[in-house]
Design a protein that fits this description.
Shape: globular
Structural class: alpha+beta
CATH superfamily of the largest domain: Vaccinia Virus protein VP39
Radius of gyration: 24 Å
Number of strands: 15
CATH architecture of the largest domain: 3-Layer(aba) Sandwich
Helix content: 25-40%
CATH class of the largest domain: Alpha Beta
Distance between the termini: 72 Å
């Protein structure tokens, strides 16, 4: 009986591991696709409330993309990635470590080694029971906000919200440590550091922020709906947080001068994100964190970059480019304004399609000429002549007006 080629043998082993529950870890490396930012892909089994899933994480140069798929669907997807996007793979199972290696034009090779004891899969269901979160589900105020029950489990319909809150906490914690090192006193000019959450809603993430920061900060949630302001203040009072955490009725005024050391604006619609960023930049905030939403401003005037004109008639392509162009321009303007920026996935796409988290850490003086030119070059590529954040910052997108630019 003839021996099948190495790639087919490896894919058979991979599918069996994924579908039979023996997968411990998979790494796909040596990228060969068209995306120059793609570095590798990791896969591991997880046990979610909806059942067994395979967690796939694509790691790019500056971002990560994660998807949780049913085993059969994950196996089908991985079948197509080996050879089209990645040349090498390492598969760890309960019984062996399989290495698949190939080179363009060369002969592929498959090797099998003994299993690594430290990568033997856990028993089903162990993932949910033992995973440590920065913010445990049993945190008391999560119960009063209607997210979890007394056992720390999500209430009906709130599993996605709890996942979002915990992922936000995990993303924010290292940013806070960098912006405000533990060895430095949490105060500025003799006052507690000031935090603004613009559009705080029911306060899920405002409470999370106060929980992570501790008593040295004063966190203020701005919310236009008075009934939510009253509700959140009541919950804060019940848990002894009113000195540290307060909610007020109103909207953010980007032209107002007020102390702000951390600015948070999550899912602020359209140019409200720009208003929030402008206030934080004007106040010299050390940390800015926004999750943009409904990026409508640029779409009507956006021009097709070279080569995209034939597909520009499709509304979905135009809409996605408008979202990308808006948020990429914001990131470049932040860098010009003296911030180092990061872009990450806020939460899984199964919870919300608006899942981009843009953060900025203040590091240097504003107005670097090279940064200004990068902003203008990007704007020119899409025909962008005006944009809300640029207007707030008095940044001329189509010329070099202003000495600071």
């Amino acid at each position: 009986m003839p021996v099948s080629p190495p790639r087919e043998r490896f894919l058979h082993l991979l599918r069996a591991a994924v579908t039979e529950g023996t997968l411990a870890k998979l790494t796909l490396g040596k990228p060969c696709g068209v995306d120059p930012t793609l570095r590798n892909l990791f896969a591991r089994p997880v046990q979610l409330r909806d059942g067994a899933r395979v967690c796939l994480t694509w790691r790019h140069a500056t971002r990560e993309v994660t998807r949780n798929l049913p085993p059969t669907e994950a196996a089908d997807l991985l079948d197509g990635l080996l050879g089209s996007q990645f040349l090498d793979a390492h598969l760890f199972t309960a019984t062996a470590h399989h290495q698949f290696e190939s080179n363009p034009g060369g002969r592929p090779r498959l090797r099998s080694l003994p299993a690594r004891p430290d990568l033997v899969p856990s028993a089903p269901g162990q993932h949910d029971r033992t995973k440590d979160h920065v913010l445990p589900g049993a945190t008391p105020w999560l119960q009063d906000l209607g997210v979890t029950n007394p056992e720390g489990r999500p209430r009906a319909g709130m599993a996605g919200k709890l996942s979002q809150i915990q992922h936000f906490a995990a993303l924010l914690q290292p940013l806070l440590r960098t912006a405000f090192p533990p060895e430095r006193a949490p105060e500025q000019d003799g006052r507690p550091l000031q935090v603004i959450d613009a559009g705080s809603g029911k306060g899920y993430l405002t409470f999370t922020l106060a929980h992570l920061l501790g008593p040295g900060f004063r966190v203020r949630g701005l919310e236009a709906r008075p009934e939510l302001v009253a509700f959140c203040n009541d919950v804060a009072g019940r848990h002894g947080l009113r000195e540290q955490l307060t909610f007020v009725s109103g909207r953010l005024d980007p032209a107002r001068d007020e102390p702000c050391d951390i600015l948070i604006a999550l899912h602020a619609c359209d140019t409200a994100t720009d208003d929030a960023l402008a206030l934080g930049i004007r106040a010299g905030a050390r940390l800015l964190v926004v999750a943009p939403c409904c990026q409508h401003e640029l779409r009507p005037s956006l021009e097709a970059p070279p080569g995209l004109a034939p597909v520009w008639r499709h509304g979905i392509f135009r809409e996605r480019h408008a979202e990308f162009a808006t948020d990429a321009l914001r990131a470049l303007l932040l860098e010009w304004a003296g911030y180092s920026t990061q872009v990450a996935e806020f939460t899984g796409a199964e919870h919300t399609a608006k899942n981009l988290l843009l953060s900025g850490l203040r590091q240097r003086p504003t107005g670097a000429p090279a940064k200004a030119q990068a902003v203008r070059d990007f704007a020119a590529a899409y025909g962008i002549r005006t944009q809300a954040l640029a207007r707030h910052l008095s940044f001329e997108l189509t010329g070099a007006a202003g000495a600071q630019q």
